[in-house]
Amino acid sequence: MKLRSIAEEKNIKKSFLERLDKSILICDGAMGTMLCSKGVSTTVCYNELNISNPKLVQEIHKSYIDAGAQIIETNTFGANRVKLSRYGLEKKVYEINFQGAQIAKEVAGRNIFVAGSVGPLGRPTKIFDKLTKNEKHRVFTEQIKALCDGGVDLIMIETFADLDEMKEAVNAAKDVAYLPIICQMTYGQEGKTFAGMDPFSAVKELSEMGVDVVGANCGRGPQDILGVIKKMGSISNIKLSAQPNAGLPRFMDGQFIYPSAPEYFGIYAKRLVDAGANIVGGCCGTMPEHIKAIADAVKDLKPKPRMISVEIKHPTGYFKKPLIEQPFLTSLSKKFGKKFVVTVEIDPPKGVDVSKALEAAMLFKKYGVDAVNIADNPLARTRMSPVTLAHLIKKKVGLEPILHFTCRDRNVLGIQSELLGAYALNIENVLALTGDPPATGDYPYLTAVFEVTSKGLMHIIKTLNQGYDLAGNPISPHTNFCIGAAVNPNASNLDREIERFKEKVEAGASFAQTQPLYDINIFKKFLDKISHLKIPILAGVLPLQSYRHAEFLHNEVSGIIIPEGIRERMRNADKPEKEGVLIAQEFLADAKKLVSGVCLMPPFERYDVALDVLRVLKEKRGRKK
């Protein structure tokens, strides 16, 4: 195929904008919904069908054109290197996008515009991804060049939540071609994107970049997008596009069912045009019947003049809202720097009987322990919710809990919901953890969630502390969690571990707990390297029970190093359990001079062993080295 010249691309742009000046253009509906309706499994890569089943993709394009669509989008929404790598298709980025454009062009004819669909790289990048700005730019450039080589007429950058990421896509499009650019973000119920961006800011910043059309797609349905379009149209004369979902879906018989009828879409198509929309189409759940209803409803309508309000300045970017300045002082954090803080870890029961855990907590409270760590399904094995046990211990025993909270089992919605519930139960201290993968536990066939890592979890908690959820919606009152981080002084790449730890501190961590430690020299080296971070450290201490226990921890548990000399002591001990207590006491006596506190981890729920170790703290002088 002969590539178009700059002059040809500029003529396409001129023709497209002239048609928008005179008429309402109808965009197509959902590609994925149609593929699913034709029996394509949701487990396959829909974009790869451009190669393996081009006739099916073309058939769907034609059905939308027959319904009245004047813009059809290529089957390339997720065809970037990042998303295709999930299917092992990252080397086929060019082929999939080029073919996607060619398939659409073959069926479009002269009067139908083909829009190259470009979606986000994944989840909002400032929370989830580690791609640099330049890397994102290269990924978008790779995809958009293939689309342009395939002959698309427009670039449709859609379904974004992160404006900064969308800007990189826009810059890539401008670097590649002179074609029209349409930018659509996805807004929630409160009129903001998942990343907290409002429509006013999106219009302002994208207009300044010189994009041709700004709008909204996906979301909850026509009503919400109508509200967004009204806001956009009130502050700018830029051309607008609207492509709502067919309402909120439910999952039934292996597929999503959307409630909005075509007739309903026809009614809202008129309202969207009245609000200023120049392009109207559909997103998830919409089919040719919806597009026909839109086309019939707006066929005689012309673009509406707008009444522009005085421009109002709005915050832009990620959570740039007035922050609530807080000391994050919980009853636990008030003790840091004033005393050597002692915490002990308690595992929730494997059933519903909490009596042993409560008895242990009562015993620790009498002994002067400051807080108990409540584990969250350690080793990915089923136990009671740590939130429940933390609440019961605080309510019935009066001992401060440190809630271990992992990202393994919850998406970001569930994370926020459970954190708010925990705070309502007066749980104020959270140790933010990524979590053990389920393959290490009793359920190797399970798929973990891991939408965020521990650093992303800290970002979420910090945002709740500032009085907002992740979508930028205010919560009242704000939370006041004290955030803890895990750190491993035994890491083989200590410099990388320290760099990650620094990122956690910057993300909001106000104290840290280490992996179990047995070598005071390794610990001192670590503490020297992080002394500039000025954060309380709780040293992890796990008493050994036997030589076999020591061998297991050293050889089979990631992140734990037991020096050969310690293992030999356990091998040669007449009474291994007592020797393990002595080793832990020796380490604790040395560590007390270096850190803010200890996190004692009783082996196999042997809480009596924990008390034996803690007796060294009652001595006026610790044991000699």
Outline of the structure:
The chain is of the alpha/beta class and about 625 residues long.
Write the layout of secondary structure elements.
Layout: H1 6-22, E1 25-26, H2 31-37, H3 49-52, H4 54-67, E2 71-73, H5 81-84, H6 93-108, E3 113-118, H7 125-128, H8 133-150, E4 154-160, H9 163-176, E5 181-185, H10 199-208, E6 213-218, H11 222-235, E7 239-244, E8 250-252, E9 255-257, H12 262-275, E10 277-280, H13 288-298, E11 341-346, H14 355-367, E12 371-374, H15 386-397, E13 400-406, H16 412-424, E14 429-433, H17 454-465, E15 482-487, H18 494-507, E16 511-516, H19 520-529, E17 537-541, H20 547-556, H21 564-572, H22 576-591, E18 597-600, H23 607-614
Parallel strand pairs: 1-10, 2-3, 3-4, 4-5, 5-6, 6-7, 7-10, 11-12, 11-18, 12-13, 13-14, 14-15, 15-16, 16-17, 17-18
Antiparallel strand pairs: 8-9
Helix pairs in contact: 4-6, 4-13, 6-8, 8-9, 10-11, 11-12, 12-13, 14-15, 16-17, 20-21, 21-22, 22-23
